Amino acid sequence: KQEVTQIPAALSVPEGENLVLNCSFTDSAIYNLQWFRQDPGKGLTSLLLIQSSQREQTSGRLNASLDKSSGRSTLYIAASQPGDSATYLCAVGAWETSGSRLTFGEGTQLTVNP
Amino acid sequence: NAGVTQTPKFQVLKTGQSMTLQCAQDMNHEYMSWYRQDPGMGLRLIHYSVGAGITDQGEVPNGYNVSRSTTEDFPLRLLSAAPSQTSVYFCASSSPPGGTAPQYFGPGTRLLVL
Q1: d(Cα B71, Cα B88) in Å, to the nearest integer?
Q2: Could you report the per-residue pLDDT of A47-89, keeping only the tens digit for each?
Q3: Distance from CA of residue B102 to its chain's centroid?
Q4: Per-residue pLDDT tens over the stretch B26-56
């Protein structure tokens, strides 16, 4: 059974700092990995999607990398801003006998202080 | 596009009552799914559908029913509510899994079962 772990569970940083969020997964047979953002009381917003054949994806100040062989992904946020405060979720997509499955980590709660 | 919409936003039920959580999407996505989000457990897949008339069970299907009569709608039915079903429920849709398209999530339904 796929398990996804995110470290740290919570992170508080001053504005302007560069930071890295970590995600690890136990089964490397995945077809993609997604990073989501969740604001309090809201749904999930997809930030970046990396296909299994790719090594990284970039969007603005965000960069996500994928090392499928070691079961790791990182989300790099450059020049953090208070508006980046949210919970960041990592999810891996894999095919199982019953069909496709998206398995989520529990998230990293990020607070960026002005 | 409205994206993925969910109703109601909040609901209180008594143990044993039944209800239907509504989900609709206007992106012509074939794949739709229901998740529940609980503290310390992350998001877990309840049921999913790969197209109209086709549904299958996810990780935690007990106590829930689904049907998919149209591409747009994917309602989730609680047959006899239990306190253990107190949670936040998210509906999601996407193009067929395994590709480059991310999943789009609705804003969620907060359910309290007394």
Answers
A1: 24
A2: 999 999 999 999 999 999 999 999 999 999 999 999 999 999 9
A3: 17
A4: 999 988 999 999 988 889 999 999 889 999 9
Report the alpha-carbon distance of residue B102 to residue B92 in Å, rounded.
10
DSSP B27: S
Query: Which range, of A34-38, A50-54, A86-90, B10-14, averages the lowest pLDDT?
Result: A50-54
DSSP A103: E
Give CA–CA dist A90/B36, Å, rounded.
16
Of A41, A46, A98, the CB nearest to B56: A98
Chain B environment of A91 (Cβ under 8 Å)? 43
Backbone dihedral region of B63: left (phi > 0), alpha (psi from -120 to 50 degrees) or beta?
Answer: left
- Closest CA relative to residue B14, chosen from B82, B62, B76, B79: B82
Question: What is the β-pairing status of strands B42-51 and B31-38?
Answer: antiparallel
The interface residues of chain A toward chain B in range 78-97, judged by CB-CB distance below 8 A, are 89, 91, 93, 95
Q: What angle do CA B26, B2, B70 make, to 5 degrees?
A: 25
